[in-house]
Amino acid sequence: DVKVTQSSRYLVKRTGEKVFLECVQDMDHENMFWYRQDPGLGLRLIYFSYDVKMKEKGDIPEGYSVSREKKERFSLILESASTNQTSMYLCASRTGGKDTQYFGPGTRLTVL
Amino acid sequence: LAKTTQPISMDSYEGQEVNITCSHNNIATNDYITWYQQFPSQGPRFIIQGYKTKVTNEVASLFIPADRKSSTLSLPRVSLSDTAVYYCLVGDQGFQKLVFGTGTRLLVSP
Question: Which chain A residue lies closest to B86 (C-alpha atoms)?
Answer without folding.
Answer: A42
